[in-house]
Amino acid sequence: MIVENAPRLVATDVDGTLLDDGGVVTPRTVAVLERAVAAGAGFVLVTGRPPRWIPPVLARLPEGLVRLCVCANGAVLYDAVDDVVLGAHTLDPAAIGELAALAAELFPGCGFGVERVGNAEGDDGVRGVVDQFLTDPGYVHAWGEHDGGSTSREDLLGHPATKVLIRSPELTSEQMMTALAPKAGGLADLTFSHPSGLIEASAPGITKATGLAEVARRLGVSAADTVAFGDMPNDREMLRWAGLGVAMGNAHPDLAGLADEVTAPHTHDGLAEILERWF
Q1: DSSP letter, residue 1
Q2: Once rounded to an integer, what is the mean pLDDT over residues 206-223?
Q3: Is the pLDDT of residue 2 over 60?
């Protein structure tokens, strides 16, 4: 499906899509996003990042340009202006335990991490976002040093989580998906956004598409009036859902094959190249 009129909602992945290799949103991209919002279009970030990793992205954009953010591959809807979680979908401990047992059998020595996100009210009655990343001692972080804590495997797997990460750096993420997905059944929705041995698991049926659909519902916008941009397999469902699904020129081959269009890479203003048709 192709969006012929100006889209009413612009949705974009962050890493490898909105940001260039230096973590910057180019002036050309900022300018067209400002024109789109000024024309009445909604603008939403749809990312695998947790809420705590959203502020560095917003710091690269004009204030007020973004309010709603779909985080954790669709599991969390975050209001970045009020700093509050509007909704979260979690994997229950029983499913996490089964998934971990399967992964441990298939990938001996693999490490596990969990994202736990929600709201909590302090003793002073003030609500705040709880955004915690925990790993077991064997976890090797995919992006170097991380901002999480370490805990026992028992504690890690014994509580609900918005995302479970399975890490086996000696394999590729595609190899892990090929082995795990057929055996995981309906335990979780599996995807990846990093090529080197990292699988991300969400509650069954929860994807970037379901998160974006919730934003569209809140804004009164249809899929047909939405344009979405992405570069990795965790963007697959979102690009299929949107009226116009655009893969970046640097996208994973599987994503490029299913997108309605392929634009220039994230390093060459691919997002702006498409939006400038209307704005």
Answers
A1: -
A2: 98
A3: no
Name the residue among 82, 31, 90, 26 with its Cα closest to residue 54.
82
CB atoms within 10 A of CB 147: 11
pLDDT over 70, % of the chain: 95
Residue 148 has pLDDT above 90, yes or no: no
pLDDT of residue 1: 44
Give the DSSP letter string of 195-219.
TTTEEEEESTT--HHHHHHHHHHHH
Burial 199-211 (b: 16+ CB within 10 A, else e): bbbbbeebbbbbb
Q: How far apart are CA 228 and CA 271, in angstroms?
A: 9
Place of tokens 């934003």: 215
Sign of the alpha-carbon torsion through 189, 192, 198, 200 = negative
User: How many other C-beta atoms are found inside a 10 Å radius of the C-beta of residue 70?
Assistant: 28
**Which residues lie closer than 8 Å to 46 by C-beta, 6 or more apart?**
11, 12, 13, 69, 70, 74, 208, 211, 212, 228, 230, 235, 238
pTM of the model: 0.93
CA-nearest of 262, 239, 272, 277 to 32 is 272
Confidence of residue 223 (pLDDT cuts 50, 70, 90): very high
Report the DSSP pairing between strands 163-167 and 198-202: antiparallel
CB atoms within 10 A of CB 19: 20
Mean pLDDT, residues 124-152: 81
DSSP state at residue 155: H
Length of the chain: 279
pLDDT of residue 233: 96
Specify the pairing of strand 244-247 against strand 226-230.
parallel
